[in-house]
Structure formats: structure tokens, C-alpha cells
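Changelog note: in this version the structure field was regenerated for every chain. One regenerated record is shown below for reference.
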Amino acid sequence: MQRLWRITLDDVPGCSQCEFRYGCFDCRAGAHLLTGDLFGRDPTCPYDPTTGVWRYEVPTVDSKPKRKEGLVVEEVDSDLIVADLAGLQMHVLNPVAAVIWRMCDGQQTAEDMAALLAGHFGLSVEEVRRDVDRTLGEFAAKGLIE
């Protein structure tokens, strides 16, 4: 088990050269389940680091992201566990990502979310907007929002 926790994306062929590897929501258990290889690249990853092409649509400025239906959600300590049983994926969201995910109600834009978070944390909307956009991009990549 300790060996599993020591694996980083620097050890995974195809991921070791990816510019997003340090911010990736990679799950070695899921990749192993889907590929049979503990060091296999997650086949659900929407980004190809060799071409720089994403296989999903990035939320636009005026889009109003909505949580995907049918996900199993459970709060554990300060984290939110979101499981997609159909896709055999489980995601652990930190408290801020969980707040952003809960705001994905189909009524608010990324700008609306950033303004609310900026006011709550006493930060600039521009600074928070970058984080909201990045988080929404990850949610879209993992199929957590529509």
C-alpha cells in the first residue's frame, strides 16, 4: 500500500511530460482498474499532452454549469466525495472546490461564482475567477458538470 502512495504522475508514462500533472485529480486506483496497469495513464483523462488538445468543451464565459445528475455525494470531514458509479470514478473535493461544485446549479455563471467567493474570502474577483475557471475545467474534464 505504501508503494501506491509513493507513485506520482512523474512516474506515469504519458503523464510525466504533462504540464498539468501537479494539479491533476489523478487516481491511481481508477487507472489501475481501467487499464490493469498501476502505472497506466488514466484513459478517462481528457487532455493529450503530446498535442495539447482537450477532449471536452471548456465552460464558456456565459455558460451556467450544472452538476451532473446521478452522482453519489457524501461529505467526509471537510471534504466532499463525489462518485460516478457509472464511470467507476470517485473524486475528493477540498472545501473550496466543494463550494464551487455546489454552486453549479445551472443558474450561476463562473463570474457570479467568483464574485461570491471573492466577497466571502476578501479577495479580488479577477484572482478568484482564475481559480474558478480552472476548477470548472477540471469538473468538466471529469464529467462532474454539464
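Spot check on this record: The mean pLDDT is 85. Residues 125-141 form the longest helix (17 residues).
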